[in-house]
Amino acid sequence: MLISDKQKQILTLLADGEFHSGTTLANHLGVSRSAVWKQLAGLADLGLHHAAVSGKGYRLEKPLELLAAHTITSGLQPAAQALLQRLEIHDQIDSTNAYLSAQAQSNAATGTVCFAEHQTAGKGRRGRQWVSPFGSNLYVSILWRFQQGYASTAGLSLAIGVAVIRALQQQHINPVGLKWPNDIISNGKKLGGILIEMSGESDGPCAAVIGLGLNLFVPETAAQGINQAWTDTSKINPALTISRNRLSAAVLNQLFAVLADFEHQGLQPYLAEWRRYDCLQGKPATLFIAEQPFPGIVQGIDDHGLLLLQHPDGRTQAFASGEVSFSRTPV
Predict the structure, then answer these.
(1) Residue 222 or 61, more confident
(2) Which pLDDT belongs to residue 130?
(3) Does residue 199 sit within a domain?
(4) Total-model pTM
């Protein structure tokens, strides 16, 4: 469902989580009260539910903080501000990664950032859909160009994971950790994910679109579409109020800091920190490559970012790709 201009105006008015009368909303929008009711009814399809009380009016089930470019950019450190070339915020888009991948083909500048309030076809790993209810979570992608080919990006997803953990901890979101190769984990459940998509030349100029999805509040209706153990920041610490705009700025500060130096420094500066956040170290797990399972004990990562898995016969093997399934234990 596409969000209409009238619905966006209603959301802006209802964002405070307080009651607003149908008459007030109708007068502000220049429509009838019945038209207001119809617009509100359609918001449920976006994962936005409201209460209607006679004599009080309408309110959202929880306050809503819409993303604002000026608020995000005002929270950027000077180094990040210098690297940011363009920041776009879309009310609705198919996928921030898909959008920036298309922009990359049209010569968009390195440092272009795309946020979305809602994704209709958000991307997860291996073609999965990323559940993306409106205005609840963080969906962002950054376009970054590398001059030395795909090889210069080896281990980038791990370094990006470190950047995300830094941003979360700055916002007092704990406990959080990393699951190889690109999941953000809290208490054994998925809090977020990183998706990097490459285009260009394997040994020359190439473009990376770095996508990040973070769960801040996932409505139960939206959660029905998630087929793995998940969590959000509202469950990690219910007493903590997270500003989506402040978190967005913190994420960009940390991501730009990594991207600015990665092509020349690589993964090495982030290895020790990644290992501190490793949720799999020493735990039994099964690595799936296609449909083939490889059970064993995870022994961390090597200096190239490859997963080290100890097989039942005692052999340790390094893997460059795959998907890891592990028992639900806290980080």
Answers:
(1) 61
(2) 61
(3) yes
(4) 0.90
